[in-house]
Amino acid sequence: MDFRDSPHEAAFRGEARAFLDAYAPARLPDYADQSVDQEQVLVQARGWQRTLFDHGWGSITWPLECGGRGLGPIEQIIWNQELTRVGFGESHFLQGLGLAGPTIIAHGTEAQKARFLEPILRADEIWCQLFSEPGAGSDLANLSTRAEKSGDEWIITGQKTWCSGGHYSDWGILLARSDFTLPKHRGITYFLVDMHAPGIEVRPLRQLDGTTHFNEVFLNEVRVPDANRLGPEGQGWQVTMTTLMHERMAIGGLERLLSIDSLLEHARANPQRVDDVMRDEIGRLYSWVKALELLNARVITKLGRGEIPDAESSMLKVAIARMLTKSGDIGLRLCGPEAMLRLGPWQNQFLTAPTLHVAGGTDEIQKNVCAERVLGLPREPRSDRDVPFDQLPKG
Ligand SMILES: Cc1cc2nc3c(=O)[nH]c(=O)nc-3n(C[C@H](O)[C@H](O)[C@H](O)COP(=O)(O)OP(=O)(O)OC[C@H]3O[C@@H](n4cnc5c(N)ncnc54)[C@H](O)[C@@H]3O)c2cc1C
To answer: Can you tell me which atom of ligand 1 is nearest the CA of 360?
Structure first.
């Protein structure tokens, strides 16, 4: 493991830092902070992404010819670290920049690249992900939204759920089943769908903290031009693998969450609430975070060698979700009775950190990865792989 930046990485970090010190607004929009006006946050976020685009920082990893900086995952991690340093949280544009864009770059036609990429980089168009359904989450290939060909269009009908940001998105990446007679991974086609098209109904889901992050999306005979099919008909699963790999990298940019500094500051500001039990809990969490930093360094070292750190990333994700849930719990207790009166950052973390146990692959699915790839345990039996979808028992 190597903890130091190479000369090239140090130079990139210096460049990123100089840019951010010169251009980052004093208060950067924080997507995760539900305590502030979300419409205002979105306006600010678009403005900031446009500034990044104008100065050539719209995307670190997209190729140069697609408007990105053409750099690798290590530079992305350094960029994330520098963004964290200036207080930048998660972005509204994760689905566009991190999922839709890279998938269009890998599988899109030249016309699709020309139409969709620049508006993503400039934040002119916001994207969402329409993958999960009530019967298809961890087992995504079980999806049953129907796509029927009609001339040079597709007619799509079905229900999607847990669609983050669907209520302010312009476009969605969508999976639908175009052939029900094939085994479940083989009859899926991948589409780019206009969220303003007739037949799309977006129903926001109200969360525990009173805000809306997710939506149910109903598609009722939505017409999608064949020109907006991404990749060959029936080969949507292969295209999806590209999206999911990038999703892992985008969500896997978790090191920005790996900090206990704000909790320590909060504890120092409220010494009257730090009893021996809490001191012990914070100390335990601190040593946990230090161990995770080492695991993260292993992930970064592997990426630097051009390897894919899948098992390490799975362990890291499970551990960071646990760490954030715990620090949200301690942070809330440090607020004392005041925690009940308003929605602030600690209340927000307490209520939303648990979602990380599910988003981007649940804890159990990550543990399955560790069981198979670290412990060498037998693979999960998959008896439904070769059965035509329309012959599978429906639960
Ligand atoms: C914050 C957040 C944002 C999200 N954003 C989006 C989005 O924008 N677009 C989108 O399409 N989806 C989104 N999702 C949905 C997410 O991808 C799914 O929630 C996830 O894939 C799990 O699916 P599920 O909720 O249907 O749970 P299920 O897959 O039904 O799982 C239920 C339980 O069973 C367990 N389980 C399932 N299979 C196994 C197995 N093989 N072995 C052991 N245990 C198992 C799970 O771990 C879980 O505890 C988001 C979710 C969250 C929390």
So the answer is: 17
Q: Which CATH architecture has domain 253-373?
A: Up-down Bundle (1.20)
pLDDT at position 122 over 90: yes
Nearest CA to ligand 1 atom 24: 137
User: What is the distance in A from the centroid of ligand 1 to the CA of 362?
Assistant: 6
Which of 347 and 181 is assigned the larger pLDDT? Answer: 181
Q: Give the span between the Cα atoms of 235 and 244, in whole angstroms.
A: 15
Pocket of ligand 1 (CB under 6 A): 128-129, 131-132, 137-138, 162-164, 355, 358-359, 362, 364-365, 368, 380
Q: What is the pLDDT of residue 81?
A: 84
CA of 14 to the centre of ligand 1 (A): 39
- The catalytic residues are 247
Q: Of the CATH numbers 2.40.110.10, 2.40.30.10, 1.10.443.10, 2.30.110.10, which one belongs to the domain with range 127-239?
A: 2.40.110.10
Grouping H, G, I as helix, E, B as strand and the rest as coil, residue 265 is: helix
Q: What is the pTM of this model?
A: 0.92
Atom of ligand 1 nearest to the CA of 128: 8
Angle of CA points 163, 108, 65, to nearest 5°: 110
Q: Which element (helix H / strand E) includes 331?
A: helix 310-335
Output the CA 363–ligand 1 centroid distance in Å: 9
pLDDT, residue 48, reads 92
Q: Rounded mean pLDDT of the chain?
A: 90
Q: Which two tokens stand for residue 131?
A: 């993958």
Residue 129 near residue 95, CB atoms below 8 Å: yes
Which ligand 1 atom is at minimum distance from the Cα of 129? 9
Average pLDDT value for residue range 325-341:
93
Gap from CA of 17 to ligand 1 centroid (Å): 36
List the domain boundaries for the chain. 7-92, 127-239, 253-373
CA–CA distance, 160 with 157 (Å, rounded to integer) = 10
Amino acid at 55: H
User: Domain 7-92 belongs to what topology?
Assistant: Butyryl-Coa Dehydrogenase, subunit A; domain 1 (1.10.540)
Question: What residue owns the CA closest to ligand 1's atom 43?
Answer: 364
Between residues 61 and 252, the one the model is more confident about = 61
Q: Which residues contact 313 (CB under 8 A, 6 or more apart)?
A: 248, 252, 299
